[in-house]
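Assess this today:

___
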Amino acid sequence: MKKVIFMLSFIACSTLTAQSTWKADNAHSKVGFAITHLMISEVEGHFGEFDIQATADEEFSNPDFTVDVKTASIDTDNDRRDEHLRSGDFFDAEAHPSLAFKTTSFEKTGDKTFKLTGDLTLHGVTKPVTLEGKLNGIITDQRSQKLKAGLKLTGTVDRLAYGVGSDTPTLGDEVEMTINLEMAQQ
């Protein structure tokens, strides 16, 4: 009888923390960045094409992210600059069509804050990156009746460590990433 009670308790607890897939709603999400130009100003941009998925429970605790961003979708509101960024001088989008991120660890740092560490593959180079995260909230969408989670991820990437561009005084080495996500439970 004790074994039966233990098994039923285990099944009940497993059900309560069941993991499901969450997918970014691209219409309400943005993968943005900013970089210093001429040591006096900041240029902002974003990537328009991306696939971001996570595996997490209904509380969106301990998420496991898989990210694929199309480098050719870079947009800085300047066509000439964007073409240069897609070229072999920077992203070499033809040879390296995507950048990827895969979670390796998650650390809760506060009630709604966390650190997300993972492997970032960019320009053919893979290195660990840690992002600061904030869970803005979770709601049930009235239209779809699906759970939706809002998150913000921020961090810094050293572009030279990935071989993106050259060492030049006109362009900062560090790229500030800001990723705003609206994730829908599938």
User: Anything to note?
Assistant: Helices lie at 2-16, 79-86. Residues 19-185 form a domain with the Lipocalin fold (CATH 2.40.128.110). The two ends are 37 Å apart (CA to CA). The CA atoms of residues 96 and 124 lie 7 Å apart.
